Amino acid sequence: MRVLLVEDDLRLAAALATHLRRGGYEVTHARTAADGVRLAADADFVLLDLGLPDADGLKALERVRRGSDVPLIVVTARAGDVLKGLHRGADDYLVKPVRPDELLARMRAVVRRSARPARVRRAVAGDVVVDLAARRVTVAGRDVPLTRREFDVLAVLAARPGEVCARDEILLALWGDTSLSASRALNVHVRNIRSKTGRNGLIVTLVGTGYRLGDDPS
Questions:
Q1: Which residues form the Response regulatory domain (predicted)?
Q2: What is the CATH number of the domain that holds 179?
Q3: Residue where one domain finishes, among candidates 65, 93, 114
């Protein structure tokens, strides 16, 4: 598999490229958004940093998605931009510092999902529909008003249906830290989502691990 690594940090790029090659991947490295967009057409997989020297990585992501459905993971230190990346078509994300083993596992998971007939644009769990693009949640056809952050929590899970999202991963993506105050806020938002939707099983808690979207929330 040909992997395009778009990363301007040469030391990090070299380390990731070495690990990817050991995993059996062929790696092409680009340092700029312009080169990344140009080379994406020939790649089987794209790893895209958002902090690039010539253009914002989110703009590069939009340009790639205009002409390609190539599996793509955003790799960024900008935790606050994770949801923006997902909304613009990224298949998954990793917040720096990156653990190489986790990166390879995420890539394999994205490839499995990409083999399905359609890319996830909305998630359905029983009578609950989470529309990621429209930022809309309905239960049995009825709109459920969630706050911005409540929807953000649900969107992280809905973007990866059937997969477990680690608690710290959600905290880093939405709050940028794993502090006690952020952890308590996450607890409150999960509780509010269950209450407002009336579906306690919509978010499944895996004690000591994290959360996943429920298959049958009723």
A1: 2-111
A2: 1.10.10.10
A3: 114
Same domain, 100 and 194: no
Per DSSP, the residues of 151-204 read HHHHHHHHTSTTSPEEHHHHHHHHTSS--HHHHHHHHHHHHHHHHHHT-TTSEE
> Helix (H, G, I), strand (E, B), or coil: what is residue 4?
strand
Q: What is the pLDDT of residue 139?
A: 95
Residue 115 has pLDDT above 60, yes or no: no
Q: In a 3-state reduction of DSSP, which class is residue 93? A: strand
By the 10 Å C-beta count (0-12 exposed, 13-18 middle, 19+ buried), 120 is classed as middle
> CB–CB of 110/71 below 8 Å?
yes
Q: Does residue 38 have a pLDDT over 50?
A: yes
218 domain-assigned: no
Tokens of 178: 């794993």
CB 45 within 8 A of CB 71: yes
Helices (H), 10-123: 10-22, 33-40, 57-67, 82-87, 100-114
Q: Which helix (H) or strand (E) holds 124?
A: strand 122-125
pLDDT tens across 14-28, in order? 999 999 999 889 999
Confirm whether 172 is domain-assigned: yes
| Residues 6, 110 within the same domain | yes
Residue 207 shares a structural domain with residue 132: yes
pLDDT of residue 117: 44
Strand order of the β-sheet with 2-6 is 26-30, 2-6, 45-49, 72-76, 92-95
